[in-house]
Amino acid sequence: MMRKSGIKAMLVGATLGFATISGAAIAGEADVTAVTVRSGSTYSFSVTVRHADEGWDHYANRWEVLSLDGKVLATRELAHPHVNEQPFTRSLSGVKLPAGTKEVRLRANDKVHGVGGVELIVDLATGKSRQADGGRS
Question: Is 13 contained in some domain?
Fold first, then answer.
């Protein structure tokens, strides 16, 4: 039979453990989960992002189109949290890419963690995407 002091210690430990989990730990990084691309004289990207937005202090605030060597080619700012809309898709049109670009990398950013979630690489000719190395899986 467990003594009262043992139960009390378990409850205090569980409470302290729960209290140390911050909103940042719960929400995690922003992940790019899908991308579609259309081309013409410029490119249009529709990017789906998943992030456990918690409000104005912690939300996915942008996604970026990058060259494979990491140069930011275009940025789509996200002006507000999407607490009740997950995942969500936003588009960016009129993107000019350097001549000869065959693939680009898509990554999302959140206000607390910055970048670091799942990133995708998309083949501009086929529209097929794959998970990039280096992002969280």
Answer: no
> pLDDT per residue over 28-55, tens digit each?
888 999 999 999 889 999 999 988 877 8
Q: What amino acid occupies position 64?
A: E
Query: Is-contact 135 82, C-beta < 8 A?
Result: no
Q: Is residue 119 part of a domain?
A: yes
The total of structural domains in the chain comes to 1
Q: Which CATH number is 28's domain given?
A: 2.60.40.730
Strand locations in 18-119 (E): 31-39, 43-50, 60-66, 72-77, 88-95, 103-110
DSSP state of 69: T
| 123 in any annotated domain | yes
**How confident is the model over 73-100, as pLDDT tens digits?**
999 999 888 777 779 899 999 999 999 9
